[in-house]
Specification:
Blueprint lengths: L13 E4 L3 H11 L5 E4 L2 H10 L4 E4 L8 H11 L5 E6 L7 H5 L5 E4 L5 H40 L4 E5 L5 E4 L1 H7 L17 H15 L5 E8 L5 E11 L8 E8 L9 H27 L4 E6 L4 E4 L1 H7 L13 H4 L5 H12 L4 E9 L5 E12 L5 E10 L1 H25 L4 H18 L4 E5 L5 E4 L1 H7 L3 H4 L11 H15 L7 E7 L2 E14 L2 E10 L6 H14 L3 E5 L5 E4 L1 H7 L3 H4 L13 H14 L1 E10 L5 E12 L5 E10 L1 H4 L1
Helix pairs in contact: 5-8, 5-12, 13-17
């Protein structure tokens, strides 16, 4: 494996999975200076890499041996890291259509030969930004879930039978001990009050006791018979206390119920009073537990009475929406001011649900905070009715899903941009890019069919492997060429010297340019355009040679690639502009002439190169090239990064699509400063 710079955070590592050594090395070279990069020659090697390290981004091909890229992505996301960002780069879209791939959490889907190095770097940076947002959101949810579970566990596992109601004694929460004592779960009590499970003979005393609490009398108790779910009765003593000081709550009644054995009626009065005092303390403790439970809940909780007056809000309302409990309690909430205008129909649907006697509603709504910041909430409504069927109140539980919605929006926007880019390619926005794309497809097919001569040599230029096309060309067998010096198959001394020179460059850490070799075959001497790439690690180094027969013709794709290399490494400045005069390409000649790097110029207006006094002339030149299509060898002036003014010769060409529409400009600039002197 090859690795890039060290010192990057582990989760920011990139894993490149590509079986084509030439393209794999290209991706590595593009990214290694800005990111921590590791490469894998195939899916199996990639899975081994995941066992040794963690990666934030995987860039993968689709069509590979042993396992295709789609299966690799599904395995990694399903078994190793569901949050890993994935960029697919392929020449075979049929293997995994883009619309299906993007629905499987693929961050980007790129076409081989259809993107610039700067575009790849931008996509990688954006992927890491997105991953950071997703991981932070997951960690926040995990911590909230742990806190909520902790406080709910305190309430549920209490050894006392706890029952919490509103002032109408409608159930809000019951714990496991209460269910065990009464036989009723919270769902069983959905349409009941505490009085409904008290025997009719005791109900009047119970009502009197609880009304006394509501009117402000000291905490007290009452002995009643509970009507069990199975029809039996159980004699219990109920302690009740009304609380009005709870943060975010209008009123609430906390109850503790304990079964009474008949002999307890004869207990000394002092013991009874002590027991009641103990229960009062337990009730106070339960109050604190309930408050902690609701205040640490991650959901927004709001209770409304039958007139839609707010009875209770938890602390999450303040944390999320910015409103204090005093602004809500005892009032009708200003829903039409808080809810986004396009979601006002949800308020009307809620009112209609009451009239239709619905019990539950759920969905999503856009809501404004007190500071008018818009949030996305996922809500659940629980509508309450009394035994006579009259509306009794409304419970609202809502979760803030704004970050999730923003992430979804970003993914949709990214997908839309990718689709637009692919549409531009399909419609032929750039003839050059389209031809390069077609050439890449042909080259890929040729490689897969082993039409080129492909062989590998060691550092002493001895043949280790040669493909079928090479053996057919030489009319020999693999055993006859294995470990034989490569120079034995070259037809002249010049080719031998050239090969050894290129191998020397590779051993010296340099990347040689493609070069021509003369090879003696049984059918005569042939000229091959040869590319060398070093693969392997320090323990085993090989040089892979890809040789294409150019004796009869040079493929259109290679000519385009050659032109691209000439453009990039030309001593002249070659600059690409879009129709708004923003720089979209910047070659080495431009960097050497003007001093700015590609990263400093791409996306900027070309006015940065033009002296202030020459800007009107530049506008006129651009308008002229729009009319004529070409301006050649026009002498003018340009400005360097240091402010130096250069005398230059400018050739400006308008780039047009098949419909004749201009989509950009290319500028070739020659420095005439020394010549002028």
């Amino acid at each position: 494996m090859d690795t890039g710079r060290q010192g990057i955070v582990m989760s920011q590592k990139i894993l490149i999975v590509e079986d084509d050594p030439v393209f794999r090395n290209y991706l590595f070279q593009v990214l290694k200076y800005d990111f921590d990069v590791i490469t894998a020659a195939g899916p199996l090697e990639a899975l081994d890499a995941f066992k040794q390290d963690k990666f934030g981004l995987m860039i993968t091909d689709l069509r590979m041996p042993d396992m295709d890229g789609r299966a690799l992505v599904e395995k990694v996301k399903g078994e190793i890291d569901p949050n890993i960002m994935v960029i697919v780069i392929t020449a075979f879209e049929d293997d995994w259509p883009m619309d299906i791939a993007m629905s499987s959490d693929i961050f980007r889907y790129l076409r081989k030969g259809a993107f610039l190095p700067s575009e790849l770097k931008q996509n990688v940076s954006k992927a890491f930004e997105m991953r950071g947002s997703i991981v932070s959101l997951e960690e926040y949810k995990r911590r909230i879930d742990v806190t909520e579970a902790l406080y709910k566990d305190v309430f549920d596992k209490s050894t006392d039978a706890l029952y919490i109601t509103d002032v109408n004694l409608r159930p809000v929460a019951v714990n496991a001990r209460f269910e065990e004592l009464s036989g009723y779960s919270l769902d069983d009590l959905k349409d009941k009050t505490l009085f409904d499970i008290i025997d009719a003979s005791d109900r009047e005393r119970a009502i009197e006791a609880f009304n006394g609490q509501i009117e402000g009398m000291p905490p007290g108790s009452v002995k009643v018979h509970f009507l069990m779910k199975d029809g039996t009765k159980r004699y219990v003593k109920v302690w009740a206390r009304l609380f009005k000081e709870l943060q975010g709550m209008s009123d609430a009644v906390f109850c503790i119920a304990k079964e009474i054995e008949m002999r307890n009626d004869r207990m000394p009065q002092a013991d009874i009073e002590n027991h009641e005092k103990s229960l009062g303390q337990e009730l106070e403790t339960s109050k604190k537990h309930f408050q902690r439970l609701t205040d640490h809940a991650k959901d927004i909780i709001v209770w409304l009475d039958k007139d839609f007056i707010c009875e209770y809000v938890n602390a999450e309302v303040t944390r999320t929406l910015g409103y204090s409990s005093e602004e809500f309690l005892g009032k009708k909430l200003p829903w039409r001011e808080m809810v986004h205008v396009d979601d006002h129909e949800l308020v009307e649907k809620c009112e209609q649900a009451v009239q239709s006697r619905m019990f539950d509603m759920e969905g999503e709504v856009r809501l404004y905070t007190k500071s008018r910041y818009m949030l996305y909430l996922s809500y659940r409504l629980s509508l309450q009715y009394d035994p006579d069927g009259a509306f009794a109140g409304l419970d609202i539980v809502a979760e803030d899903i704004t970050q999730q919605k923003l992430a979804e929006h970003e993914l949709r926007r990214a997908n839309r941009k990718i689709q637009e880019f692919n549409d531009r390619l399909t419609n032929g926005v750039s003839k050059k890019i389209r031809e390069l794309r077609e050439s890449e497809e042909r080259c890929k097919q040729i490689v897969e069919d082993l039409h080129d001569i492909i062989f590998s040599i060691d550092d002493e230029a001895r043949i280790i492997y040669m493909n079928r096309k090479g053996l057919q060309t030489l009319m020999t067998a693999h055993d006859d060429v294995y470990m034989k010096p490569c120079k034995d198959f070259l037809s002249d001394e010049s080719s031998r010297e050239k090969l050894m020179k290129m191998i020397g460059l590779i051993n010296g850490g340099k990347s040689p340019e493609p070069f021509d070799l003369s090879i003696e075959t049984p059918k005569g001497r042939k000229i091959y355009r040869t590319t060398l790439v070093q693969v392997g690690d320090e323990s085993r180094t090989e040089i892979v040679c890809v040789a294409r027969d150019i004796s009869e013709e040079i493929s259109k794709g290679k000519r385009l690639q050659l032109l691209a290399n000439i453009e990039h490494y030309s001593a002249d400045a070659i600059i690409g502009l879009d129709t708004d005069r923003k720089i979209i390409s910047w070659n080495q000649g431009a960097r050497m002439m003007f001093g700015w790097s590609e990263n400093e110029t791409v996306g900027e207006f070309d006015f940065m190169l033009i002296p202030d006094e020459d800007k009107n002339e530049a506008e006129a030149l651009l308008e002229e090239v729009r009319q004529k299509g070409l301006i050649k060898d026009c002498e003018t002036r340009r400005k360097t990064k240091t402010g130096k003014i250069l005398d230059v010769s400018l050739t400006l060409t308008a780039l047009k699509d098949n419909a004749g529409n201009i989509y950009g400009f290319s500028a070739i600039i020659k420095d005439l400063t020394e010549k002028k002197k």
